[in-house]
Design brief:
Blueprint (H helix, E strand, L loop, with lengths): L47 E5 L2 E5 L6 E4 L14 H11 L18 H12 L4 E4 L6 H11 L8 E5 L6 H12 L5 E2 L2 H8 L5 E5 L6 H9 L4 E6 L13 E4 L5 H12 L5 H14 L3 H23 L23 H5 L2 H6 L3 H12 L3 E2 L5 H5 L7 H7 L3 E4 L2 E4 L3 H7 L6 H16 L6 H6 L1 H10 L2 H17 L3 H18 L2 H17 L3 H17 L3 H19 L38 E4 L10 E4 L24 H8 L27 H24 L126
Parallel strand pairs: 1-6, 4-8, 4-9, 5-7, 7-8
Antiparallel strand pairs: 1-2, 2-3, 10-12, 11-12, 13-14
Helix pairs in contact: 2-3, 4-5, 4-6, 7-8, 7-9, 12-16, 16-18, 16-19, 18-19, 18-20, 19-20, 20-21, 21-22, 21-23, 22-23
Length: 825
């Protein structure tokens, strides 16, 4: 492992026996070994070393995987191919396991001889065929028969693969490579993989194909020496027009073949009633062989129940019977029960078989290996349920495992078998978490159970999901099933995030980064490793941080070498091209840069030795940008509200931006302006004069009580008339000095003042208000009947002070003259 601060490198020890860690699966502990305490992690530190391209990968389930460059002289050469004995052993291991219990009846291949001979003939010529048929049409049985006929046609034999769950050709190419070459500890990179599978010459039978189009074309181009027999359903994506595949459609059986299949399934001849029922069933199911396998199971169950009830008529029912006795003879199933027989078949099987069906519904149709059923169901004889379900046609083989047949999962869920799906998935996840971490389980055995493990991981709670992903991920990595490894790591990281397990989340991100580095995805590797380093740094995990930084250094080295085309996940400032310096003795124009100067081009002229120089104006001149400067510069922050508003709304207007001089260019002759501008100026002047006259007439008023200015309201004015003297100060002009503020203005209401004897001019604006408030006499107060003229006071008044010439206020205040009772309103 990692060396930190000069400490000696520790050696991983298994939890059950004091033996060093080895690359192969550790043997079980001996009886002399002391019992070890129960640990939360894996039971044994099963360390496996692999060669992945240019790297050496050490899969350690305790501290995480380590990756380093491959040492010179190790790997790189193509391994040897398997011989005939090795291929036979491989084929035996690829078949479904032998089931305990009674032997199931062999399925007959009826009315397929013509298709069988044609397929063998095309494959022998090196042609690839796409066999299309609906689910339950007998495609897998036909592939088994063709595989037996093509054993000696190709140098590398016949290879059986399963395309279930594969949408891309990568994992299929790795599976083909592992089936032909003896390389148990090597996973080549893409370039090496394509170079080695190109030399494979075999007949590949690929069942349950799920890809088409460009992905299928890539698979065919990568293996030009292989002949493929691809079995797919009609809803699978069609291949491209350039794939050169032979198409063959597999339909249903005829009436006589359906009757023969039923008789072979039940072991006797059909009655007239059963023959008529079989004809109706063929019409409803379009002659699919799977429906008649299930129909034969229905008839067998009916015969068993009728015979058992007839033999026990004189006996009393016992208390230890598993199921109640039928009261009467069981009739034939209805046509609806024959077309959808899953519920009726499941009701007549054993309790262990029904429990296995519930587990399969919880796992998305995947049935665990029969060795797991006793632990999952709780019955020591539950492993015999697989043979019972296979004889009923409720499950079908898929590679080395079994899953529910087409349409069975939907029928069982409608019958209520999916009500306990969450509990069953949780139980399966905890069981697989114990099993995948056991010392006696090899990584290849875990890879064979990958679909059931992934289904249990998807349906479990976060705690069980984290535990299962933590133990299953190293096994998938060691078995080179890296597609399942990546799916487990991503599910585990999400479950750890929800559960709040920071240490487990850091482990999953580290493994994802190592996986991406092995596959050449450097941007993804950098992101995952940086996330892992951050989490381990928060946990003060020094050894984990060092391991992550070592892997990150490999990512940087690969990026510098130019291995990955995609850019890393970081942003860099764009490079700025330096401006060219001006020539000696020249000065660039104001407001321009040296790059914006004119460019000269030399054009050759016929008959002359020199060429004229033509200046070319730049297309886009560079305009200097005026920096934004605050209006009021302060050395410190404002402290009062007045200063804040002074900064936001300055009293002095902002200076106008500097005028950028125009770029020198070819001059044009000035265009002759029309006479539109003088006419517009004259019209504007006349408009201003007219508006001023109208405003003066409208704002002027009269003090005559009989003719109030502006109607019934008071006469008001806000703008003095130009050329008129100030009211109350005769002979004044705009150039006269201002009035002394200490001298009060004479009051016009005073009878002794000179202003009281003057008659107000209706053409003059009203006088400004007096600075001294004047209390009107009772005779001057307005009455309801209208205004009255002031009466002269006979008593002498003191002489008024000499008025001082005053200058009118630039902004006079409007004054109202009481002319009517409504003047104050």
């Amino acid at each position: 492992m990692d060396r930190t601060q000069g400490q000696p490198e520790p050696v991983e020890r298994p939890a059950t026996a004091p033996v060093p860690a080895v690359t192969a699966p550790a043997p079980p502990a001996t009886a002399s070994a002391a019992p070890a305490p129960v640990a939360a992690g894996p039971a044994v530190a099963r360390v496996v070393t692999l060669t992945a391209g240019d790297f050496t990968l050490t899969v350690n389930p305790v501290d995480g995987s380590e990756i380093e460059p491959r040492r010179p002289g190790t790997g790189g050469s193509a391994p040897a191919k398997r011989d005939a004995a090795g291929r036979a052993a491989r084929d035996t291991a690829a078949r479904p396991p032998v089931l305990p219990g009674a032997a199931t009846p062999a399925t007959l291949l009826l009315a397929r001889e013509e298709e069988r001979e044609r397929l063998v003939r095309l494959l022998g010529r090196g042609r690839s065929v796409r066999l299309t048929g609906p689910a339950g049409s007998g495609r897998s049985s036909l592939l088994d028969a063709v595989a037996a006929d093509c054993t000696r046609l190709a140098p590398d034999g016949v290879i059986r693969l399963s395309g279930y769950g594969h949408q891309q050709p990568g994992e299929l190419l790795h599976a083909l490579y592992a089936a032909v070459y003896e390389a148990s500890r090597e996973r080549p990179e893409r370039t090496q993989l394509l170079a080695r599978v190109r030399d494979i010459g075999a007949i590949v039978l690929l069942d349950d194909l799920e890809m088409g189009g460009a992905a299928l074309d890539e698979l065919l181009r990568a293996t030009p020496e292989c002949a493929y027999l691809l079995a797919a359903t009609p809803d699978t994506r069609a291949p491209s027009d350039d794939s050169h595949l032979e198409e063959m459609f597999l339909g249903g059986l005829g009436g006589a073949d359906c009757v023969q299949l039923l008789e072979a399934g039940i072991g006797r001849a059909l009655t007239e009633e059963e023959t008529a029922w079989a004809g109706d069933l063929r019409f409803a199911s379009e002659g699919l062989p799977l429906r008649f396998v299930q129909a034969a199971a229905l008839l067998r169950q009916r015969d068993e129940r009728n015979l058992s009830s007839a033999g026990d008529e004189d006996e009393e029912p016992g208390v230890f019977e598993e199921r109640p006795r039928d009261a009467a003879v069981i009739p034939l199933p209805t046509l609806a029960e024959g077309a959808a027989p899953a519920e009726l078949l499941a009701s007549r099987v054993s309790e262990s078989a029904r429990a296995a069906l519930r587990i399969a519904c919880a796992l998305g149709g995947e049935l665990p290996h029969h060795a797991h059923l006793p632990a999952l169901v709780g019955d020591t004889h539950a492993d015999a349920a697989v043979a019972e379900l296979l004889g009923c046609g409720l499950i079908t083989p898929v590679g080395t495992r079994y899953r529910l047949a087409a349409g069975v999962a939907r029928q069982l869920e409608e019958a209520g078998y999916g009500d306990t799906a969450a509990e069953e998935a949780r139980t399966a996840a905890r069981h697989y978490a114990w099993w995948t971490g056991h010392a006696s389980v090899t990584p290849e055995r875990v890879a064979a159970e990958a679909d059931a493990v992934l289904a249990a991981l998807a349906g479990a709670d976060v705690v069980a999901a984290v535990l299962l992903a933590r133990t299953a991920a190293p096994a998938f990595a060691a078995s080179r099933h890296w597609e399942a490894w990546e799916r487990v790591l991503r599910s585990g990281a999400e479950a750890a995030r929800k559960a709040g397990e920071v240490a487990e989340q850091a482990y999953f991100h580290h493994e994802l980064g190592v996986l991406a580095l092995c596959e050449g995805r450097l941007d993804r590797a950098r992101a995952e490793l940086e996330a892992s380093i951050g989490l381990k740094g928060a946990l003060a995990d020094k050894r984990g941080t060092v391991a992550g930084r070592r892997a990150l250094a490999l990512v940087a080295d690969r990026e510098k070498a130019g291995v990955e085309v995609s850019p890393p996940l970081r942003l860099e400032p764009p490079a700025v091209a330096p401006a060219s310096a001006p020539a000696a003795g020249t000065t660039p124009a104001a407001g321009t840069t040296p790059a914006a100067e004119a460019v000269t081009t030399v054009l050759p002229v016929a008959g002359s030795s020199a060429a004229p120089v033509t200046p070319v104006a730049p297309v886009t001149p560079v305009v200097p940008v005026t920096p934004v400067v605050p209006v009021i510069g302060r050395s410190e922050a404002p402290t009062t509200l007045t200063e804040v508003f002074e900064e936001a709304f300055p009293l002095n207007p902002k200076p106008a931006p500097p005028v950028v001089p125009a770029v020198a260019g070819p001059t044009r002759a000035p265009r002759r302006q029309p006479l539109r501008k003088p006419v517009l100026l004259a019209a504007g002047a006349l408009t201003v004069v007219a508006l001023g006259t109208v405003m003066a007439l409208a704002m002027s008023g009269s003090d005559d009580p009989g003719t109030p200015a502006g109607g019934d309201g008071p006469a008001a004015s806000s703008t003095p008339t130009p050329g008129a003297s100030a009211p109350g100060v005769p002979g004044t002009s705009g150039n006269d000095p201002a009035q002394d503020p200490g001298t009060p203005a004479p009051d016009a209401t005073d009878p002794g003042s000179p202003e009281s004897a003057q008659t107000p001019d209706p053409n003059q604006p009203p006088r400004p208000p007096s600075r001294k408030p004047v209390t009107p006499s009772p005779s001057q107060k307005p009455s309801p009947d209208g205004p009255k003229p002031p009466s002269p006071d006979p008593s002498p008044t003191p002489s008024a002070p000499t008025p001082t010439p005053t200058q009118p206020d630039p902004t006079p205040t409007a004054t109202a003259t009481p002319a009517s009772p409504t003047a104050t309103s």
